[in-house]
Amino acid sequence: MPGTDPLLLDEISLLLVWTAVAIYVLAFIAYAIDLARRSDLALKAKDEVVARELVTAGGGGVISAGTGSSASVASKPRYLWARLGTVLTALGFVFHLVATVLRGIAAERVPWSNMYEFALTGLLLIVAVYLAVLTRYDLRFLGSLMTGLAVLLLGGATLAFHVEVVPLADPLKSVWLVVHVFVASLATALFALAFGLSVVQLIQTRRERKLAEAPADAEPKRSFLRTVPNADALESLAYRFAIVGFIFWTFTLIAGSIWANDAWGRFWGFDTKEVWTFVIWVLYAGYIHARATRGWRGTRSAWLSIIGFTAVLFNFTIVNVFFKGLHAYSGLTT
Amino acid sequence: MSNSPSDGVLRPSDHADSSPASDSDEITQPRLGVIGWARWGWRQLTSMRTALVLLLLLAIAAVPGSLVPQRSADPNGVTQYFTDNPDLAPVLDKLSLFDVYTSPWFSAIYLLLFISLIGCVLPRTKHHWKALRSQPPRTPARLSRLDDHRSRTIAVDGEADATAAAAVDTAAAQLRKSGYRVARYDARGSYSVSAERGYLRETGNLVFHAALVGVLIAVGVGGGFTYTGQRVLVEGQAFANSLLDYSSFNPGRFVNGDTLSPYSMTLDQFDVTYVPPGQPGSGQAGDFVAHVTTQAPGADPQDGEVRVNHPLDVQGDRVYLLGNGYAPTVTIRDADGREVFHDSVAFLPQDANMTSLGVIKVADGLPQQLGLLGFFYPTMDVLPSGALTSTYGDLEYPVLTLRVYEGDLGIDDGTPRSVYTLDPSGMTQIAGGDSGNPAIQLMPGQTEDLPNGLGTITFENEAPAGASGYDGSVKRFASLSIHRDLAGPWVLAFALLALFGLLAALFVPRRRMWVKATPDAGGVRIEYAGLARGEDPTLAAAVEQLAEKHGAALPPQSHPETGKVD
Ligand code: HEM
């Protein structure tokens, strides 16, 4: 955009980012209220009815977003607050998207070339994947987790990592920046969803265990978990996101090696960032194996998914800022 | 038991889909002495649980290499670490923590993992090979016991048996068309087709695991045929691709240093642009290009460019740009005006504004050897403390300052000395510091006297005639790294193979389908059932679709019964 002041564009972009954060906060609140109200709703509706409706039988427990059997549509609880949360998330996403595009225009390149931009785009993708998945599965019970993550990380990254637009350093001028980093962000988004599902799975497992232990005539406890798919369904859904994420991560690893070979003359050198990319890859390979190992399916594999995503976050934050290595792209001068 | 040959997929006995009956294998203690124990050990090593534990160990073991500097990636960091932690460093070194990825414990983990992998994949490959050429298994007697099951009854139009057989024929044709391998199992009283698809899933899984072995071997063996060499070239300098002309050379085990492909390379010009002051990112350097001319024997000289991210291919070697800097040209004359030194000396950059440090050694021609320790500032400025600094990387106000030492350079006794360092012990400082004489300070084109009437020193202006300002007044150097890598293409090929294998292994559904027609009192009862082999979220939909499609192809009077979902 010749003639437009990049600094001004970036300032507008920054303003939009904060607007998006504010809207995400509202979405988070709406989703949180939804979860609180679900406990009541769930008590009113018969427990079993809801469970049957959310988890259509067969097929490993596909969670249907509106394809429940027609007989129960009338009694289907309409989660108004969840709906509001989703509308707000989508609105926040629009601001977030425009902010990201403006940043790209200001910089005259893809907006994922330093830590701030990587956070901007990465979280945009997390929200995008979440919203896209909502069209197929009703995962609104993850809404508060996802918007909470977006608020914390986007707000945090903007405070801590925002830098002015500067020309790209030579090592970053490569098509592989476009491909490698984008696919890594996409993988991160999928891992984030899998992480959220694994967390809820663990909580749900605990509840199911307690329920099984409780005497049959015990007073049912209020909990939003009644409106959430059972642990098995959560697990197989988490697995599905994780394996797609794993494919992208594998590609990230390969693309990164090709880039490293162009930039540094070796495709693999156990640079700190390479180490962590590898560690994450191995952790998720372990997770996939755990799902297929007797005695590891369920809680243990869920923990691996959680550990895997923790490593992803660690890799992006702590490793980028504090670890020394060739991947000096944070754009921060320390 | 699910790893019976008819199952189609052989899995380690502790695979989640194996029947728990095989647990007894693990519980039963071997009674057969050495062979029994060996068998048992092998089965443990090739079990899912071992693979999983080794994978997790591998992840954990890789972490320390990111916390402690590694000799392979950051040798200077290791040296620094020893200086900073003199007590801790030797202990860490004993534990191979500075060479994590070649350490015995790291190697042990990945070697065990790969042994386990091979031990797991080989029998599965054999088994899969057989499965690929065998028929889909017999139709189960009671399809209704399967989770995904539909049924309908059709009115009989003529003879019941013929109708049933025809319906199964139709189903078999449809299944075959959608990629299933089919087998007919007609018995007295019922007709059925058994179909299976998704062998590619297991093929993908095996290809993936085997390709990982391929990656490991390519890295291990290919590394032996790989070499890297470094060379610093000042503008105008040439270099021949032979061992002698490298400043450092790291050959793989099988590299013969005498048979490098013969070519020569000249650095014609090195370009870099700086973001001017007042703009965002001002002072930042970019667009580094080394313009070179390469020549192979008997061929015409060729122009080439070496850029960051864009190495130059020469005769199967790849030339990378590692670094760059200034190489001031200095001439030293003795008291009689005879030239005793004339060279462009590469100065190593110390900061982003190219404050550079270099050493000039004059071994002959003067009464004593001379060592000069120089700082070069492309755009000199004076800090409030009085110290000099450079404020910009380009040549705006270039200044060279030199401290001069007289005495023994220590280069005659054969000890190798770096050209970038000066050891002033045993020398007398005669200019700069406490020597009583000021340090020598020059701009391009200027000449000064050396102390004690030793002669003169000139900082040559290399700018072509008519150049404006100080543009081009000081030569630049490029530090090049020249690689031959035979492993790379193989590693890439195996990695891509692994990726495609993985795609198939994770996303191709493997499933069995059955369509069975049984003539009974009300007509012909048709059943559809499916069974997933491994993760298959769309099985229910697939059975439903099969039932619908088949129904549509049947004579119109047939009427569906409600799909039964258990
Ligand atoms: C370098 C080490 C290994 C890595 C990185 C690795 C990675 C993977 C990955 C990503 C998958 C998922 C693909 C699929 O489902 O087909 C997988 C599956 C599998 N791996 Fe490995 N693996 C390794 C070693 C092993 C070993 C040693 C064994 C033998 C015990 C093994 C047995 C299996 C089996 C049986 C599956 C299929 C799981 C299922 O049914 O879902 N793997 N592996």
Automatic annotation (TrEMBL), chain A:
Alphabetical keyword list: Cytochrome c-type biogenesis, Membrane, Transmembrane, Transmembrane helix
Keyword Signal in annotation: no
GO terms classed as biological process: cytochrome complex assembly
GO CC list: plasma membrane
Membrane-protein topology: Multi-pass membrane protein
Boundaries of every Cytochrome c assembly protein domain copy: 112-327
Compartments where located: Membrane
Molecular function as annotated in GO: heme binding
UniProt superkingdom: Bacteria
PANTHER family: CYTOCHROME B_B6 PROTEIN-RELATED (PTHR30071:SF1), HEME EXPORTER PROTEIN C (PTHR30071)
Protein name per its UniProtKB record: Cytochrome c-type biogenesis protein CcsB
UniProtKB/TrEMBL annotation, chain B:
Origin superkingdom: Bacteria
Keywords for the protein's UniProt record, in alphabetical order: Cytochrome c-type biogenesis, Membrane, Transmembrane, Transmembrane helix
Region Disordered, residue ranges: 1-27
Residue spans crossing the bilayer: 51-68, 105-123, 206-227, 487-508
Domain (ResB-like) ranges: 48-542
Topological relation to the membrane, as annotated: Multi-pass membrane protein
Annotated compartments: Membrane
GO CC terms, sorted: membrane
Pfam families in alphabetical order: ResB
GO biological process, alphabetically ordered: cytochrome complex assembly
The name this protein goes by in its record: Cytochrome c biogenesis protein
Organism this protein belongs to: Microbacterium enclense
